[in-house]
From TrEMBL:
It comes from Propionispira arboris. Residues 1-20 form the signal peptide. Gene3D superfamilies: ABC-type transport auxiliary lipoprotein component (3.40.50.10610). The keyword Signal applies. Keywords: Signal. This is Lipoprotein.
């Protein structure tokens, strides 16, 4: 009986050790990301477009293995690096590098709305709004000192312009999130 009890206690202790190691491994896979405020370089900057992008831009990175650097810290690092957002262009590599260093981020991400085209068609009894969105991303990996530049496209059609725009932007952003999370 003592042998069985001893083996049971030994088994429970070894399982506790295994779970503790697994928990530590999961914590070590936590990535910190600095998200540079998006740039809307298109003429279509209605309030709802800004709201859609702001909400979805940050929301896409709210997953368990990602910790987002606070916006204030990112802005402070951008200011320290001398970045001027009024030029409506994503920063160059040296700014991404400085932001990563100042915020201690593993990755730095920037996004720009490059194109947002809406075309309306009125047919006999219906209206259709077609929207195409093109987003440009820059994704900096601090450990490799590498900046990846890519773009995504989204399209949608709906009777309502707001819905069409929302869906096209969402479509393009989902593709961007997938490319970024695949790179982590």
């Amino acid at each position: 009986m003592r042998t069985v009890l001893f083996l049971l206690v030994f088994f429970l202790l070894s399982m506790t050790h295994v779970f503790a190691e697994a928990s530590q491994a999961a914590e070590s896979e936590l990535y910190t990301i600095a998200v540079i405020p998006y740039i809307g370089a298109t003429a279509e900057l209605k309030t709802y477009v800004k709201d859609i992008v702001k909400d979805q831009y940050m929301e896409g990175f709210l997953v368990s293995k990602i910790k987002i650097i606070p916006e204030e810290d990112v802005q402070k690092a951008l200011d320290h690096a001398g970045y001027d957002p009024s030029i409506m262009e994503l920063p160059e590599k040296d700014v991404f590098e400085a932001v990563a260093k100042d915020t201690k981020a593993d990755y730095v991400i920037g996004m720009k709305i490059a194109k947002l085209n809406c075309n309306g068609y009125i047919q006999f009894i219906s209206t259709e709004i077609k929207t195409k969105a093109q987003l440009q991303y820059k994704f900096y990996n601090r450990s490799t000192n590498r900046l990846i530049v890519f773009q995504t496209n989204g399209s949608a059609k709906d009777a309502a312009a707001k819905t069409s725009i929302t869906n096209a932007i969402h479509d393009a952003m989902e593709d961007g999130y997938q490319k970024i999370t695949d790179s982590l």
